UniProtKB/TrEMBL annotation:
Pfam families: Fer2_BFD, Pyr_redox_2, Rubredoxin_C. This is FAD-dependent pyridine nucleotide-disulphide oxidoreductase. The keyword Nuclease does not apply. It comes from the Bacteria. Residues 320-375 form the NADH-rubredoxin oxidoreductase C-terminal domain. PANTHER family: NITRITE REDUCTASE [NAD(P)H], PYRIDINE NUCLEOTIDE-DISULFIDE OXIDOREDUCTASE DOMAIN-CONTAINING. Residues 3-295 form the FAD/NAD(P)-binding domain. Keywords: FAD, Flavoprotein. Residues 424-467 form the BFD-like [2Fe-2S]-binding domain. InterPro entries: BFD-like_2Fe2S-bd_dom, BFD-like_2Fe2S-bd_dom_sf, FAD-bd_OxRdtase, FAD/NAD-bd_sf, FAD/NAD-binding_dom, FAD/NAD-linked_Rdtase_dimer_sf, Rubredoxin_C. One of its GO terms (molecular function) is oxidoreductase activity.
Amino acid sequence: MRRVVVVGHGMAGARFAEEVLRRDPGGERVGLTLLGAERHPAYNRVLLSSVVAGSLPPESVRLHAPDWAERSAADLRLGASVGKVDRVRRVVQVDDGEVPYDALVLATGARPWLPPVAGLVGVDGVLAPGAVAFRTLDDCAAITSAARPGAPVVVLGGGLLGLEAARGLVARGCLVTVVHPRSHLMERQLDAGAGRVLARALGGLGVELRLGAVAERYEPGEGLRLADGTRLAADLLVVAAGVRPAVELAAQAGIAVDRGVLVDDALRTDDPRVHAIGDCAQHEGAPTGLVQPAWEQAAVLADRLTGTDPAARYRGGGAVTRLKARDVDLVALGEVHVGVDDERAEVLALEDPARGRYAKLVLRDDRVTGAILLGVPDAAAAVTQLYDRGLPAPSDRLGLLLGRALPAGAVAEASPADLPAGAVVCRCNTVSKGQLVSAWRAGARSAPGLVEATRAGTGCGGCRDAVCGIADWLAAAEPSTASAVENQRSAVRGL
């Protein structure tokens, strides 16, 4: 039996374990040990903004059933502090001894980046009182316990996580101000036009924005002082200024790191017995900070380390980002910063700030290579299908931007009966409509059953309504199951 040790029990490490156990359910080929730093079982970090908003209870974001570890062939150790990796002896040193390995998987994730703001961090490296990072389930508990209706809250960071946190806190009745040093929001995923429209939309929802503002000093109990002298009252400061890959363990072991732990297409580091996946890994074709690449990497590495497919390789893929904030429908994918003056691409843009809509489309050789779609959900569904499947775009480009023109083989997300079997419903887990139908016919006769059988809806959560819609459509063809599905589908929408 080959001994495989996984350092990290977050979304990447937990998915890798799940993929290994699917291929080797009895643990006959692989002896799997999981070392998780947190004391919580694995949970879906993508949905933490919904926990902050109060729309999901913390227990609903768990990735596995409470008794998963007991029922599996894995040795799961939570709250495990990993000291170092001895690559010569091939052991991982933990607080209660050593764990030997034949293959080591680093899934250490990323840590919040703390900007250089005076008073934010103490000499012990701990955040000052009243300041909380937004990364873990414990962070969510600290944020929600401090959030009070009418209380002033400052969110430091106008990227994806910062805006999700801000919208969630507004839903709790807090008076939220987002401080962002760049000229527009989500500058990695959006161009300036989309950033303007998003800022206006969030302002209409109660989020106050300070763009191009640099935080200078944090004073616990008082608030945040900006470089221009402005003082912002804050009972709570939420730090969501970005993350950095957790590479310290790898670096201490002499493994090559850059921004992340360097890996090849086999997800190997420069030590062939050590691998890395997820946010801590750096692969030239993988977008960072997204769940889909991590889970794709987990499947490839499970194929390799169980011997199921020794030739499996991870080749990277395109990035699709969704802002998970209530009343804001935003999708950004692929090339987003290509300008209309780029002669090598066809670029169209439509801006309607009064209605909170912005649509940008980038095409090369009649294929979608990038898009920003804000406030146009029908267009987002169609364009994402085109991008995922490499289908040619319809000649009516304006109709596509407005969600009115669909090419052959792509249909609106809200039409499950017409959706082709090969259409991807859950992009995070690469689950097609055909796979959902097959799971239904195999006995998963409810929306929660489809989720359990296929994992659809367990990633970013953006496809939950589509999964429920397909369950409703399938149930309608079998009246005996319709009432049961109606009773159970709310469980999926509440994940």
